[in-house]
Amino acid sequence: MSEVFELHRGGKLAVVPTVPLSTREDLALAYTPGVATVCEAIAADPALVHEYTWVSHTVAVVTDGSAVLGLGNIGAAASLPVMEGKAALFKAFANVDAIPVCLNTQDVDEIVSVVTALAPSVGGINLEDISAPRCFEIERRLDEALPIPVFHDDQHGTAIVVLAALRNAAALLGRKLPDLRLVVSGAGAAGVAVTKMLIAGGVTAGEIVMCDSRGALHSGRSDLNEAKAALAASTNARRITGSIVDALAGADVLIGVSGGTIPEEAVAAMAPGGMVFAMANPTPEVHPSVAARYAAVVATGRSDYPNQINNVLAFPGVFRGALDAGATRITENMKVAAADAIAGVLAGDLSPDAFVPSALDPRVAPAVAAAVAEAARRDGVCRPTTAR
């Protein structure tokens, strides 16, 4: 453990000037009086902020510390090492500068107000480790209020990589996405986003059964929040009730984003030649060695097993592409394009132990960025460029 603490001593980030500051002339250009000219130009044409400041390559990583990793509600200060790490990944994988912003409030109105107020300083907002269902409202309100991309990574980053993994797993096994029966274990932020993304990516909505701690979601349940109720109305066409054990009988795919434990007999009852993505970390819902007894392909959220479903495959490239395109928001088509790009990195070279690219594969972020930028242009969500 001493090695971990030494690595984190002093933090993992620093600010480095990108211009020379060695002479009086340097100071006159970078600061006063030269900077006033640029300020006046931006005041006259606010769009110039994207050209003459760091906004075009900078993202705020915002959290309230309410749902940090598997640690739970540990608060703003204790969440900072994670947000620093997230910012470091942004820079290392996609050359996006990111600023950790850990807010000492968990009030939805206050979070929306603070982030809206600081938004002119950055080109995008990456929401991180905010508990459900509050995260849904925070993202929705910020997305409506701000002219820059807003992206809750715990939802959409996970969903993008799951869709990419499913595409490749299905291709490897000669299956079609619309023909698959799926069970999603977990109906929090990640589970809701994964389900929506799978539907957007071609999975048949009625063939998905979502399960929370009380069992399968269906339209007859009266204890569902707004997000769960909306999905219950469009999924589970077979009206399966009961526990996840009941839901998994005959299913082709298990996607675990719950952190719970799924009994072996439930996995054994799945259809032969299935797929198990058990992503709880560090303890998967189904241990990979158990899943491998019954499934044809297995993925986890851990780095010490093959086929790690890791958000770092998505979020750096998503923001790089959005920023490069001048996108004002991130659309469903942009997310699907990101998933397709991740899957495409391994096209023609799939195996049961390698149908998800490595988190360290240098091809991923550029491929995702290019696909996301192109999708943003097709969707018409790019701000006009400013010629000067």
SSE blueprint and pairings:
Layout: H1 2-8, H2 24-30, H3 34-44, H4 49-52, E1 58-63, H5 76-94, E2 97-102, H6 108-118, E3 124-127, H7 134-145, E4 150-152, H8 153-173, E5 182-185, H9 189-200, E6 208-212, E7 215-216, H10 226-234, H11 244-248, E8 253-256, H12 264-268, E9 274-278, H13 288-291, E10 295-300, H14 315-325, H15 332-344, H16 364-379
Parallel strand pairs: 1-2, 1-3, 3-4, 5-6, 5-8, 8-9, 9-10
Antiparallel strand pairs: 6-7
Helix pairs in contact: 5-14, 6-7, 8-9, 8-15, 14-16, 15-16
Explain this structure.
By secondary structure, the chain is of the alpha/beta class. The chain folds into 2 domains: 2-148, Rossmann fold (3-Layer(aba) Sandwich), CATH 3.40.50; 155-388, NAD(P)-binding Rossmann-like Domain (Rossmann fold, 3-Layer(aba) Sandwich). Helices cover 43% and strands 12% of the residues. It has helices at residues 2-8, 24-30, 34-44, 49-52, 76-94, 108-118, 134-145, 153-173, 189-200, 226-234, 244-248, 264-268, 288-291, 315-325, 332-344, 364-379; strands at residues 58-63, 97-102, 124-127, 150-152, 182-185, 208-212, 215-216, 253-256, 274-278, 295-300. The strands form 2 sheets. A 6-stranded mixed β-sheet has the order 7-6-5-8-9-10. A 4-stranded parallel β-sheet has the order 2-1-3-4. Strand 6 and strand 7 (215-216) form a beta hairpin. The radius of gyration is 22 Å and the shape is elongated. The protein starts with a helix and ends in a 9-residue tail after the last helix. The mean pLDDT is 94.
